[in-house]
């Protein structure tokens, strides 16, 4: 137990260092209404801010003037708005001056509820280019000779890594780096900068994570989306991964067949460019700028 606490502490310190270096954060705000006059706009998004499992009504920015409220790539995640939240969410979302969401399914949910059609946009991580992300990437100090031929990266949330990964590791003769493996100090204690590096340089990625999928696409990696063996959360109704795969025409990424490992990214690159233009157009218009 003490060892696990130590590892978590090391990991969290790396996250704090990354945040201090790259993210400007205010810690002096007790109530958002107190700073309503300090900013021209308030933007809410993206990762499951409107998921109704533990929904926080503050993400509707009720204390902010309507003409200042924008959502960018706000995620609902699930395909149903619970009855007890429908009226609250309808009133709150209808008060935004501009609305965009991260999942195609969320467009339909909000449209059916309010009559407003949100814009389907890219997750913020994909608005940056490979080159911009690589400027913050850091190679893990333990990534040594053992990984010189390459490696398979796994990133699974709330599930056990599927046994097929080990079989494919032997088949390809590549070691596995299992992010979030609490039993491996090096793998578990990586920070955001090392996370980016490992995704950018992997030979093959297995994940059930939305952002694992997003970074795989961004860095043009070969990847497979698989649920793994369930041990905590049922993600079968999750709108997020099917939506991003559909956006990029990669719906076949759930096959473990070797013939399906290689991805032709020529079409994906064109889609990514188009979606970036669309996403920045939304932001430019929402923030009152010129195209």
Brief synopsis:
The chain is of the alpha/beta class and 291 residues long.
Describe the structure using short key phrases.
single chain; 291 residues; alpha/beta; 4-stranded parallel beta sheet; 10 helices
What report would you give on this structure?
The structure is a single chain. The protein is of the alpha/beta class. It has ten helices and ten strands. Strands 1-2-3-4 form a four-stranded parallel beta sheet. A four-stranded parallel beta sheet has the order 7-5-8-9, with helices on both faces. The longest helix has 21 residues, at 2-22. The model is unreliable at 228-236 (pLDDT under 50).
Q: Which strand order spans the largest sheet, edge to edge or round the barrel?
A: 1-2-3-4
Q: Please identify the oligomeric state.
A: single chain
Question: What is the SS-derived class?
Answer: alpha/beta
Task: State the shape.
Answer: globular
How far do the termini sit from each other? 55 Å
**Biggest beta sheet summary:** 4 strands, parallel
List low-pLDDT spans.
Answer: 228-236
Instruction: Classify the helix fraction into a percent range.
Output: 25-40%
Count of individual beta strands: 10
What integer is the average pLDDT?
A: 90
